[in-house]
């Protein structure tokens, strides 16, 4: 039987990841009643950071071997340039691994430079792993198709050496492009949506949709103030924030949230939770903070949005808790559509705020009379190559979808970004929705 010491490093990392994952399950089962909510969720977030790092360790070993070890026998191995290259690769990997811990220890009114650097390295790490894997697969396919021959020649060695060089060059280019793209203000996307049974007096009603701002280690007060200025310039009748506003506790990041107090939509500003609000384990304090800025959380509840032209005309605006609250066993929270739509009948138009597209799908299966669902969560994939995974894992990916005869779903690609300050294959968006009576 092979002992743990005899296992290759990648296998040891996989075993460590499995142990951390097992500890997460045990913690949920045996510590649920022994720790208060905040401590329990802090432990969970620490375990998630450790789990991600142990998984990343397998990729980091591959990166090191591909970009450093394979060149140690070359003529330049003893040069100063190669020594500096080894240090650069090591620092790159160390920063990428540290990114998950900045979420726990380095959150303030404005992002720390270390956090921005760490998450940038994490984004570059994901891109680099993808290209190393893809180019390696192409190389193996080429060898299989043409045959290896009796001996590996100089040409084969050169092709092998070119693989990490090409991967690094592509990663550098895409990282710069992604950083520049994410540094731009969100685009304003105007969308007209026909809403069945919307009163004619409410046609042309303007709703601004925000989602996935992710105040935390890489998004601070300056970016939020920019978003608020852009929203005010649109002069919406109604503003909605569909979750993942924050990644930190309310007390820690309160100064960064102050610009939200300047939102002054005549028909109100409303908020529903996303999965990241529950990761903070501080939802109640966030609700109170948002209320102090005249932003009303819809905690499995609804309000009547009354026409400015006639008090007899209105539609039902409802919001549900994010489904992650059920997974995390967050007391008093969880998606409850029946409670959220209590008093909302099919005689009036119904607009539902639900953070995750899967929640939108479940809601429409239960209540097909909902006319419009506004969601976020996917970020449009945020960066290549994560776009494909986000597309496959969500029933609605990004943009406008028609479901049945009288129902629409709109999924925002996010107003900022989570952690990694990069956008590749997606663009941050403030959505201006014009409601039309239909």
TrEMBL record:
Gene3D superfamilies: 3.60.21.10. It comes from the Eukaryota. The lineage of its organism: Eukaryota, Metazoa, Chordata, Craniata, Vertebrata. One of its GO terms (molecular function) is hydrolase activity. The chain crosses the membrane at residues 12-30, 42-64, 84-106, 112-135, 165-183. Residues 205-380 form the Calcineurin-like phosphoesterase domain. Keywords: Membrane, Transmembrane, Transmembrane helix. InterPro entries: Calcineurin-like_PHP, Metallo-depent_PP-like, Metallophosphoesterase_sf. This is TMPPE metallophosphoesterase. CDD domains: MPP_YkuE_C.
């Amino acid at each position: 039987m092979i002992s743990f010491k005899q296992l290759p490093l990648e296998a040891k990392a996989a075993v460590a990841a499995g142990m951390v994952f097992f500890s997460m399950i045990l913690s949920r089962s045996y510590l649920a009643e022994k720790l208060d909510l905040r401590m329990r969720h802090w432990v969970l977030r620490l375990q998630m950071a450790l789990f991600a790092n142990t998984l990343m360790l397998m990729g980091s070993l591959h990166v090191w071997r591909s970009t450093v070890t394979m060149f140690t026998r070359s003529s330049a191995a003893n040069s100063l340039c190669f020594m500096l290259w080894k240090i650069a690769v090591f620092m790159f990997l160390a920063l990428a691994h540290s990114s998950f811990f900045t979420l726990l220890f380095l959150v303030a009114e404005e992002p720390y430079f270390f956090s921005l650097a760490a998450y940038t390295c994490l984004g570059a790490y994901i891109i680099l792993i993808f290209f190393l894997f893809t180019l390696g697969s192409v190389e193996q396919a080429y060898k299989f198709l043409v045959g290896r021959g009796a001996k590996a020649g100089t040409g084969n060695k050169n092709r092998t050496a070119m693989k990490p060089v090409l991967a690094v060059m592509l990663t550098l280019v895409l990282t710069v492009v992604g950083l520049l793209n994410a540094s731009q203000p969100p685009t304003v996307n105007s969308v007209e949506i026909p809403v069945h049974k919307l009163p004619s007096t409410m046609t042309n009603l303007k709703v601004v949709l925000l989602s996935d701002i992710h105040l935390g280690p890489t998004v601070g007060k300056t970016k939020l103030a920019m978003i608020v200025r852009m929203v005010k310039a649109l002069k919406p009748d109604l503003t909605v924030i569909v979750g993942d506003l924050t990644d930190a506790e309310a007390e820690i990041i309160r100064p960064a949230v102050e610009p939200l107090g300047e939102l002054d939509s005549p028909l109100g500003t409303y908020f529903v939770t996303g999965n990241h609000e529950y990761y903070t384990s501080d939802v109640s304090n966030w609700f109170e903070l948002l209320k102090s800025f005249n932003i009303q959380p819809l905690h499995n509840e609804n309000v009547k949005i009354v026409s400015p032209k006639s008090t007899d005309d209105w539609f039902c605006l409802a919001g549900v808790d994010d489904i992650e609250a059920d997974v995390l066993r967050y007391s008093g929270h969880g998606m409850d559509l029946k409670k959220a739509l209590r008093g909302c009948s099919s005689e009036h138009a119904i607009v539902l705020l639900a953070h995750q597209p899967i929640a939108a799908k479940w809601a429409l299966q239960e209540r097909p009379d909902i006319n419009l669902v506004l969601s976020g969560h996917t970020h449009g994939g945020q960066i290549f190559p994560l776009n494909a995974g986000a597309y496959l894992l969500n029933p609605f990916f990004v943009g406008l979808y028609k479901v049945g005869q009288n129902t629409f779903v709109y999924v925002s690609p996010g107003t900022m970004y989570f952690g990694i300050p990069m956008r590749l294959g997606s663009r941050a968006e403030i959505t201006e929705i014009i409601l039309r009576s239909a």
